[in-house]
């Protein structure tokens, strides 16, 4: 298939490389910054553009991989009521219906993974969630998705929002906790790498245990002495202290819900 990428960020880079490796032809790469478009297009043998009105009609599929805040306006400028082309976006939290009134055939291709431009990923193992405006477009989208991933699921915009929300908890919030941990260590001249085996084992356990069964630490049993001592250590960082308190409370409430007779009440 011939594909144009509207976007050249982390996700666009990775999906573009996966599509290119799968044998698809990348026609154009758009970014507001021509340097970004050129950097990606050079890896995909495509043409770089930095103006939406330069998007041509030579592609079969147009994939929008942009910030949610600019996605709608880009769709309005590019789709132009085209009845022959397929238009897709890759956003986890945006409805498919944003294409309505601007395109006839449209859908969503949402790869659920965290991406960085310079960190290669095995796209075949990434779950991709798709949705389409009609059966013909869904068939085309399914074929496209299966060419880059072995895990393709049909999911509505409504349910995809909750999937994206769960990913924010499982990935973005967890990574922010890493950042807090790294800063605490840095303040006391301890290298972050000492936490990496712990982080790796925590992630590995989830492949064998449920998150509830894998949970450990003072908040599970509500060890008041430890919790209070650590809370005081965060006295100079009120926001981190609040995160610590709320997280500990949530962990303990989950624990006593599972085993109400095993723990003191919070």
Write the layout of secondary structure elements.
Blueprint: E1 2-6, H1 10-21, E2 25-30, H2 34-44, E3 47-49, E4 61-64, H3 68-78, E5 82-89, E6 103-111, E7 127-132, H4 135-146, E8 151-154, H5 157-187, H6 196-205, H7 211-214, H8 218-221, H9 224-233, H10 238-258
Parallel strand pairs: 1-2, 1-4, 2-3, 4-5, 5-6, 7-8
Antiparallel strand pairs: 6-7
Helix pairs in contact: 9-10
Domain DUF2520: 126-250
Pfam families: DUF2520, Rossmann-like
Protein name: DUF2520 domain-containing protein
Question: Could you walk me through the main structural features you see in this protein, from its secondary elements to its overall organization?
Answer:
- The chain has an 8-stranded mixed β-sheet with strand order 3-2-1-4-5-6-7-8.
- It is built from 10 helices and 8 strands.
- It has helices at residues 10-21, 34-44, 68-78, 135-146, 157-187, 196-205, 211-214, 218-221, 224-233, 238-258; strands at residues 2-6, 25-30, 47-49, 61-64, 82-89, 103-111, 127-132, 151-154.
- It has 2 domains: 2-155, Rossmann fold (3-Layer(aba) Sandwich); 161-258, ProC-like, C-terminal domain (N-(1-d-carboxylethyl)-l-norvaline Dehydrogenase, domain 2, Orthogonal Bundle).
- Helix content is 47%, strand content 17%.
- α9 runs antiparallel to α10.
- It is elongated and about 65 Å long.
- The chain starts with a strand and ends in an 8-residue tail after the last helix.
- The protein is α/β, with parallel strands linked by helices and 266 residues long.
- Residues 260-266 have low confidence and may be disordered.
- This is DUF2520 domain-containing protein.
């Amino acid at each position: 298939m011939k594909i144009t990428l509207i976007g050249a960020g982390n996700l666009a880079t990775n999906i573009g490389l996966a599509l290119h490796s799968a044998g698809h032809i990348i026609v154009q790469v758009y970014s507001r910054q021509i340097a970004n478009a050129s950097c990606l297009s050079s890896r995909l043998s495509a043409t770089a553009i930095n103006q939406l009105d330069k998007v041509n009609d030579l592609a079969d599929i147009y994939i929008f991989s942009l910030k949610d805040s600019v996605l709608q306006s880009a769709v309005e400028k590019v789709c132009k009521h085209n009845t022959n082309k397929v238009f897709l976006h890759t956003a986890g939290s945006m409805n498919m219906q944003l294409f309505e009134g601007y395109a006839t055939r449209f859908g969503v291709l949402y790869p659920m993974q965290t991406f960085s431009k310079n960190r290669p990923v095995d796209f075949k193992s990434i779950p991709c969630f798709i949705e389409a405006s009609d059966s013909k477009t869904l068939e085309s989208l399914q074929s496209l998705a299966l060419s880059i991933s072995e895990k393709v699921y049909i999911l509505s915009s409504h349910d995809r929002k909750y999937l994206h929300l769960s990913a924010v908890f499982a990935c973005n919030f967890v990574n922010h906790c890493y950042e807090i941990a790294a800063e605490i260590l840095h303040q006391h001249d301890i290298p972050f790498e000492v936490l990496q085996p712990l982080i790796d084992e925590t992630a590995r356990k989830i492949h064998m245990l449920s998150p509830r069964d894998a949970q450990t630490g003072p908040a599970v049993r509500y060890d008041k002495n430890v919790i209070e001592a650590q809370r005081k250590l965060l006295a100079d960082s009120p926001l981190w202290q609040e995160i610590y308190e709320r997280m500990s409370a949530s962990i303990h409430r989950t624990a006593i819900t599972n085993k109400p007779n095993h723990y003191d009440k919070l």
